[in-house]
Design goal:
Elements lengths: L6 E5 L4 E6 L2 E7 L5 E7 L4 H6 L33 E4 L9 E9 L2 E8 L4 E9 L5 E10 L8 E6 L2 E4 L7 E6 L7 E6 L4 E6 L8 E8 L10 E6 L5 E7 L5 E7 L6 E3 L4 E3 L3 E6 L2 H17 L10 E3 L1 H4 L5 H14 L3 E4 L29 H9 L3 E6 L3 E3 L3 H5 L18 E3 L5 H18 L3 E4 L18 H20 L4 E4 L9 H4 L4 E3 L6 H11 L8 E5 L13 H8 L3 E4 L8 H23 L1 E6 L5 E6 L5 E8 L21 E4 L4 E4 H6 L12 E9 L2
Parallel strand pairs: 22-23, 22-31, 23-24, 24-27, 27-28, 28-29, 29-30, 30-31
Antiparallel strand pairs: 1-2, 2-3, 3-4, 5-10, 6-7, 7-8, 8-9, 9-20, 9-21, 10-19, 11-18, 12-13, 12-15, 14-17, 15-16, 16-21, 17-18, 25-26, 32-33, 33-34, 34-37, 35-36, 35-37
Helix pairs in contact: 4-5, 7-8, 10-11
The protein binds (2R,3S,4R,5S)-2-(hydroxymethyl)piperidine-3,4,5-triol.
């Protein structure tokens, strides 16, 4: 049977919204008070079944119980005591909205519910979108001041993109990502307490420490089984998600941009739009949820999903700030020999940038390092057959820079407070139109002057002392800075269609669906140790596809951990994403260079599977992990397996590959042996891992019948 097509519909007589996706139904009912109330999110139900659903589990009849029907966006009025997704204040001091439902529009898979406050000049649109073939539901809100010019401003203390509600489950588990610099994307699974649990970034960046993706299940789901509800916010600045499990067993969460304590003003005629908060229901475990997110990111988020991500060489770990033309040329020549397709000149090429104390803001080549500018390097890189990439950190400035000396007022600061320096730098206020215009002009000129094919857009500090002297609505900084970053990236891409952008914020500090809508990949972590990377990549893959995950092979011992690992192991771990090289190649032995060149060739052979196929995470016993990539048509397969530490000298047992077809046969391309699918799914493949620590294997399989 062909999958049910995605659709949106609204039945005005029943006040019933139904969003249908191939494997789920999401339903909303307009409540008697005019507020849209959540009805169902989960397994497909037909309209009759939906109409028969009670508004919500009814708590005991008492004046102390909260309103039973969860809101699509709680408006801070009535007997509602959970976290309100919409918090507004009017000129007379009245708080909260009281809605009338004023209509709906449906167009191209998009539904908007129109609401108007019953007394004040405030209107809201709740947006919903489904895409063909996807179970992801995208939601957002647009709030508009509809008053006359002299009606005074409305203060917005909170404007979430959406609230989500789960059906009653016997228990709830919160799956989320935590971490820090060098330890991003650590998957955490916690029993959800009967309480409000807040996940947030107050840093002005998505953050290394928490990620605006969460998944909830009843505590029993695994990679292949169980219902999972997950959501992801498309925002690259501060954010907040509040998950509320109440004592009667109901769980809801509300989320959006900004952290607590911020407020924004809307004047008559102005609107405030939220980013998209997307939700996904999957009945088949965390693996299926991740694959559905990967598919959504490919079809609905990434700007150029069909392009292969190039094998990058990046000079940062090799040279740090010690950058000059001869040194970069030597690295470029070896990188080209190894099969790199893109050479990225990292930090240190501009202004007075000989350390992290100076130069940020002055985006002209440093004459001592590049006496004839960057053209000779860019031309040679192109002649070697590679694209040319440049590291930039446009949102930042050192005090020791011509830009700061000329425009000290451009930085984010509060006039009466010290401006905290982090990594010796301050942050520019991109919310100021003249700063945004300067940044766009500067980057655009770099592309034109130096034939730049790729920007690595870095951001190595977060917001402190957020102030905007003289501005009547200074908290706009938290929204408008991020919007300006997005807008500049969009303009650059539109004006230079060949340009690609890698998002970076001291490693993986800015990874979210908002940044991925205008970049090609994310620099996952400054930690390139392959053992740590297995965990980091595992967490990253919960939401993001492998094609968006930049992964370099670097020198051994590793600069972060001091761990010594074989080149092959480092390659096999990095081959699970968008492979790159990042070490001092001029110090590699001839034997290492030959092995590396062969492994790059091998990566390019499996690249279509890794970057465009389906991903299955596998866990074997005894510290063995693996990832299986299958082509969209199920004919080609690659398995990357890693065992960092051997245990008791035991050989690795067979690794079952449950995604294969038990009725088919598969040829192991490198061994020339054909296996039955039934054996591979059940007993598994014999990995024949070499003895010792840091053992790894790449297995390529082709379906024969
Ligand atoms: C942080 C990035 O994550 C690194 O890869 C490198 O680009 C440095 N910044 C440069 O300062």
């Amino acid at each position: 049977m062909p999958p049910t097509p995605s659709s949106v519909s609204f039945d005005p007589t029943r006040g019933l919204v139904v969003l249908q996706t191939p494997n789920s139904v999401y339903a909303v009912r307009i409540g008697a008070d005019g507020s849209p109330r959540h009805l169902h999110w989960g397994e497909p139900l037909d309209t009759d079944a939906l109409c028969g659903l009670p508004a919500a589990a009814s708590p005991a009849a008492s004046s102390f119980e909260t309103d039973p029907a969860p809101d699509e966006l709680a408006p801070q009025t009535g007997a509602r005591f959970g976290q309100a997704g919409l918090q507004v204040r009017f000129a007379d001091g009245t708080r909260g909205a009281q809605w009338s439902f004023t209509g709906h529009t449906v167009r191209d898979g998009e539904l908007r519910l129109h609401l108007a406050d019953r007394h004040y000049p405030l209107a809201a649109e709740l947006g919903y979108r489904v895409r063909p073939g996807s179970d992801v539901i995208e939601r957002w809100v647009e709030l508009t001041h509809t008053g006359a010019d002299d009606s005074g401003p409305i203060t917005v203390d909170r404007l979430d993109s959406a609230a989500w509600t789960l059906p009653a489950l016997p228990d709830y588990r919160l799956n989320h990502l935590v971490g820090g610099w060098n330890s991003e994307f650590q998957l955490q699974r916690d029993r959800l307490p009967v309480a409000e649990t807040v996940l947030t970034s107050r840093r002005g960046l998505t953050s290394h420490h928490a990620s605006p993706w969460i998944a909830l299940d009843d505590g029993t789901a695994d990679e292949e089984h169980g219902e999972v509800w997950s959501t992801a916010l498309a925002w690259s600045g501060s954010w907040r998600i509040t998950v509320h499990r109440d004592p009667v067993g109901r769980t809801t969460w509300t989320g959006g941009f900004g952290h607590e304590g911020l407020s924004w003003t809307i004047q008559p005629g102005q609107s405030l739009h939220t980013p998209v908060f997307a939700g996904l229901y999957t009945p088949d475990g965390f693996g299926a949820a991740s694959r559905a997110w990967h598919a959504h990111i490919r079809t609905g988020v990434l700007p150029a999903p069909d392009r292969d991500r190039p094998v990058v060489y990046n000079s940062w770990e090799a040279t740090g700030f010690d950058v000059d033309q001869p040194g970069q040329l030597s690295l470029a020549r070896v990188a080209a020999r190894l099969g790199a397709e893109l050479f990225v000149l990292d930090d240190g090429w501009f202004g007075g940038r000989t350390s992290d104390r100076a130069g940020l803001g002055d985006w002209t080549p440093r004459p001592e390092a590049f006496p004839d500018g960057l053209r000779p390097l860019a031309d040679e890189v192109h002649r070697l057959g590679m694209a040319f990439g440049l590291w930039v950190e446009p949102e930042m400035v050192n005090r020791d820079s011509d830009l700061y000396r000329a425009h000290p007022d451009w930085v984010v600061h509060a006039a009466t407070r010290d401006a905290t320096e982090l990594r010796n730098q301050l942050m520019l206020n991109f919310a100021r139109p003249e700063v945004e215009a300067w940044a766009h002009r500067t980057l655009d000129q770099l592309v034109r002057d130096h034939d730049v094919d790729w920007f690595k857009w870095d951001a190595n500090r977060v917001v402190t002392e957020a102030g905007w002297a003289g501005h009547p609505d200074p908290d706009r900084l938290w929204i408008d800075h991020t919007r300006a970053v997005h807008r500049i990236m969009d303009r650059l891409r539109a004006d230079h269609p060949g340009l690609r952008i890698e998002a970076c914020a001291g490693g993986g500090g800015r990874a979210d669906l908002g940044i991925l809508a205008r970049t090609d990949q994310v620099w996952t972590s400054d930690n390139t140790d392959p053992v740590d990377r297995i965990n980091i990549q595992h967490g990253f893959s919960q939401l993001f596809p492998a094609q968006a995950m930049a992964a370099w092979v670097t020198d051994s011992p590793n600069v972060t951990t001091g761990r010594t690992t074989p080149l092959r192991f480092r390659f096999h771990v990095a081959m699970a994403g968008a492979l790159g090289l990042g070490g001092d190649l001029t110090a590699w032995s001839e034997e290492e260079l030959e092995e590396a060149a062969a492994l790059v060739i091998r990566y390019k052979e499996i690249r279509p599977l890794v970057q465009h196929g389906h991903q299955y995470r596998l866990h074997g016993p005894a510290g063995l992990t693996a990832v299986h990539y299958a082509s969209q048509d199920d004919t080609e397969h690659a398995v990357l397996a890693w065992r960092p530490a051997t245990r008791f000298g035991h050989p690795a047992p067979g690794l079952p590959l449950p995604a294969l077809d038990p009725a088919a046969h598969y040829l192991d391309i490198d061994e020339g042996i054909t296996h039955s699918g039934a054996a591979l799914t059940c007993q598994g493949i014999d990995l024949r891992l070499p003895a010792g620590d840091y053992a790894s294997r790449l297995i390529r399989l082709r379906r024969t019948v």
